[in-house]
Structure formats: C-alpha cells, structure tokens
C-alpha cells in the first residue's frame, strides 16, 4: 500500500485546511486509516482515525470538535478537514494505513505511512 498526502500549507489562526491522503496498491487490505502529527521537539500525536469499511471515526482530545476525518472509498482517499485552526496545530501531518482489527490510536498499530505534509498556523 502506498500513501500520498497533500493539502498542507500556511493558514491564519481560525482558518481551515483540508488534507487528503490517496491510497494505492493493495487497498482492499486496509482496515483503518489515520492521521498523526508531529511538531518540532514533540512526540508524534494521534489526530484521527477512520475504519475503512464502516466509517467509524476516532479523534484525539486536542482536535475533537474542530477536525473531521472522512473517506471516499471509491477514490481510496481519506480526508482531514481542519477548522478553527490554532497555532498549536502547527506540525507535519502524516497519514497511515493499518491492516486488521486494532485500536489505531498509536503509531504502532499502522503498517504503512505516507510522507508528511506541513501545516503551519500563524497567530
């Protein structure tokens, strides 16, 4: 499975961005996809995840109510709509795909990772 993330950029605080992650290859094996982020000097943080077939979603505490994860199965793409952005949302965002039933809150639950996309929120 190959993952290609896009959509990052520079936005003012309070603004919005939408990240996309297109999956290719053996996508039929995907059980869930997620987004993580890592800011300079900080540990990787879980942002959101979605079960590929049923669409159940999960969010990290810091983004609940502001970010929305969704997927388009026909396009093999997962999206992260980010609203009400704050300066503390500045980070490199990574998408990931996991196979099999797991919790999907930690990076160790994922099997494939895309390249990161930078999100910078100016205050």
If you had to describe this structure to a student in words, what would you say it looks like?
By secondary structure, this protein is mainly beta. It contains no helices and eleven strands. The strands form two sheets. Strands 2, 4, 5, 6, 9, 10 and 11 form a seven-stranded mixed β-sheet that branches. 35% of the residues are buried. The model has no long low-confidence stretch (mean pLDDT 96).
Q: What overall form do the CA principal axes indicate?
A: globular
The value of Rg in angstroms is 13 Å
Roughly what percent helix?
under 10%
What's the number of helices? 0
Structural class: mainly beta
H/E topology pattern: EEEEEEEEEEE
**Beta-strand residue percentage:** over 45%
pLDDT under 50 segments (min length 5)?
Answer: none
Give the tally of β-strands.
11
Biggest sheet descriptor: 7 strands, mixed
How far apart the termini lie comes to 37 Å
Mean of all residue-level pLDDT scores: 96
Task: Give a brief outline of the structure.
The relative contact order is 0.32. The protein is built from no helices and eleven strands.
How is the topology of this model organized?
Layout: E1 2-6, E2 9-12, E3 17-24, E4 32-38, E5 45-51, E6 57-59, E7 67-72, E8 77-82, E9 91-98, E10 112-113, E11 117-122
Parallel strand pairs: 2-11
Antiparallel strand pairs: 1-3, 3-8, 4-5, 4-9, 5-6, 7-8, 9-10, 9-11
Features:
single chain, 123 residues, mainly beta, seven-stranded mixed beta sheet, four-stranded antiparallel beta sheet, globular
